[in-house]
Amino acid sequence: MSPYDHFYFIRPVAADQVNWPIADYRYGGIFFAQDIIHTGIDIDAEKGAPIMAAGPGTVVWAGWGLFTETPTNDSDPYGLAVAIRHDFGYQGQQLYTVYAHMDEVIAVVGQHVESGDLIGLVGATGAVTGPHVHFEVRLGENSFHFTLNPELWTAPPQGWGVLVGRVMDEKKDTMRHKEVLVISEETGKTYLVRTYGSGGAANADPYYNENLVLGDLPAGIYKLIIIYDEEKKPGQTWVEIFPGQVTYFTFEGENGFDSTRPPAPTLEFLPALPATPTPVR
User: pTM of the predicted model, to two decimals?
Assistant: First the structure.
């Protein structure tokens, strides 16, 4: 694992449940309206399934009104939700996680929880189309505007890895909401992932500066296809996914693909303890 990776959290849904993100509701997706950006990942699960704390910390919100910061607001889009301020941070900033759309909240404000502790039950409260867990990672402030992609913070299953990319045009401007096909050379299975939409609510990792993440890929060789211009031949390349690691690429339109990782961050952005959570006192 790179010293700039941070798989600090466990999955909020037990391993015997479906616990990978719903493809159309990944971080940075556009839904309901063209100007609404998805600030977390949605994990499909049965109503009433247990939701677990992704890491140790203190519950700072439990109930209605998280988005509007109004505890009595039972029309809040997050529905019944829990927010945890974790016992560790990253690069000197506080980490939070959010669990939304619960059927029942079990945790209470002020309670200290450990990784895997029961905090609520899967539901369909708030702005939803069915039962699932909306999971967010927030860095710096417990706010909608301070989220990062949870797939870069949640440990992939054993033997699986994560694909991270920055998709741009020839001028190095990021391409918004662009489809990328990821095809397993071994099984032929095709995964569809989209680059982040516009709107400013999706934030890139301070090291990868990505606009695309696809987690939960079994280790192996994959073909990438990007249709970046209907009048031009699609861009394509092959990448290898390694267990427990990030595979990184960039794409620049007609200039094609590059697998060179980003340069090392400058000192002011370097974690105090690389790849290790920073205790918060």
Answer: 0.90
